[in-house]
């Protein structure tokens, strides 16, 4: 019998960094919201069957009006004419009613916002989080933000010492996960490791041996594949 998921799970970035949280939620295909608080900033990231579909933050840089200002699509004088422009959904509603945004440009604006929030979260080293499967995303606010590519780019920037510190032992196991419709371009090392993975979990030690790579190169590739959603990590 499968144990029920608690209504809320709590933790800290010190033990569970955001990238790993997102990978674990994706691997478990959970639906719910991840609330995060760090250095005065607050975030909520919404997952649907393990995939990030929406995110919000109280940081000014994450507000839609600030994104439009940075893109030079609106000026400060324009904002003064818009009631409640600091409230994202009211700003979008006004811009749609005036014809400034259509369905495609609305989607692009939200995707830009969500990607920025995720990148900001990946840079945070300290923070407290709670995940609940009870909070669900509002209709009409589900977007494809290509999280796999964001996580892969992040993994590529990590020092090897950081990656090595995130492994308990070479007895951890990995299995391949078939890609979604949009795939990510991997490095040559990652491609070699993917070729060594099957549906059956294999230990990191055996994957390293089959890959022909050095231990450090293979471990970094395994970590990137896990964060991107191409590999399932166990043990």
Gyration radius, in Å: 20 Å
Uncertain runs are none
Query: Strand portion, in percent?
Result: 15-25%
Major beta sheet, specifics?
Answer: 5 strands, antiparallel
Mean pLDDT: 92
- Quick one: overall form? elongated
In which range does the helix fraction lie? 40-55%
- Strand line-up of the largest beta sheet: 1-5-2-3-4
In whole angstroms, how far apart are the ends? 20 Å
Helix vs. strand class: alpha+beta
Strand and helix order: EHEEEHHHHEHHEHEHHE
Write down how many β-strands occur, each being a DSSP E stretch of 2 or more residues. 8
| DSSP helical segment count | 10
Descriptive notes:
- α6 runs antiparallel to α10 (215-228) and α9 crosses α10 (215-228).
- The longest helix has 20 residues, at 103-122.
- The strands form two sheets. The chain has a five-stranded antiparallel β-sheet. A three-stranded antiparallel β-sheet has the order 7-6-8.
- The chain is α+β, with helices and mostly antiparallel strands and 235 residues long.
- The protein is 43% helix and 18% strand.
- A hairpin with a 2-residue loop joins β2 and β3 (41-48).
- It has helices at residues 18-28, 64-70, 76-80, 88-97, 103-122, 147-157, 160-164, 188-196, 204-211, 215-228; strands spanning 8-12, 32-38, 41-48, 51-57, 128-132, 173-176, 202-203, 231-234.
- It has ten helices and eight strands.
